[in-house]
Structures are given as C-alpha cells and as structure tokens.
Amino acid sequence: MAQEPLVKFDNPKSIHPPKGYSHSATIDLGTCRMVIVSGQVAMDEQGNLVGKGDISRQAEQVFQNIKNAITAAGGNMDHLVKLNYFLLQGQDIQPIRDVRDKFINTNTQPTSTLVKVSGLFREDILLEIEATFVIPKGK
Length: 139
Fold this sequence. Notes:
Elements: E1 7-10, E2 24-28, E3 32-40, H1 55-72, E4 80-87, H2 93-100, E5 111-116, E6 127-136
Helix pairs in contact: 1-2
Pfam family, one: Ribonuc_L-PSP
Organism: Flavihumibacter solisilvae
Protein name: Endoribonuclease L-PSP
C-alpha cells in the first residue's frame, strides 16, 4: 500500500489559478495537520483584481481567499495561528484589521508579522497576506 505523502499541495477552485506555485501545503504532524497558505492577494476565482485602489475591498477578498484555502483543506478560520502581512502603506493596517476581525475569532487573535514593502508583484495590488493553520485530528 502506498504511503500518504508527508506534504500535500493544493489549489482550490475557489481561488484564482496560481502560476508557478501552490495555494496551500498541508503537513501531517501526527496529532494535527499544519496548513501553510501562500500569500493571497485580492484576486477573485477568475484572476480578476477586486477593489482597485480600495484597501478594505482588497483585504476582504484576501481574507475570503484565505478562508477558501483553509476550508478546502478541511479546516476553518478558528484554526488560524499566524498571519504575515505585506503592505505598501503602514497606515492601512487599521482598515485591514477591521476586515480581518470579520473573519477571525477576536478572542484568540493569531500571531502576526507586518512588513511594509516598497512594492508587490503588480502596482494595483495593495497587500498580500500569508496564513498558517493548525488543524487537530479527530475533531
């Protein structure tokens, strides 16, 4: 019988098709699974930018993509343990947090890192967010 791979890469259809990377990697840790979600940007399922020039609308799409990725991996947003933010404008953090709080359990906020960058891969992309989840087995 073939052994399950230690790492499973996934590209849910509910997120735009990736070019040259996978949207998530799930690692079996025995009693739980860790899911690492690639940096998500404000692209819909067809790869169209959502919210040009609007940090709140872009953040909404980014968090929806993150939620879609973890749902496809069999988890939910309560399993979130870490967020890594990459954004152009430091003052944009509060609107992003306001959107984030619609998606996460604010009683157990995840760890996070914020990096201000001079640019992302496209000029109309205002932020990118990576996420890490830990999903307990048998629950």
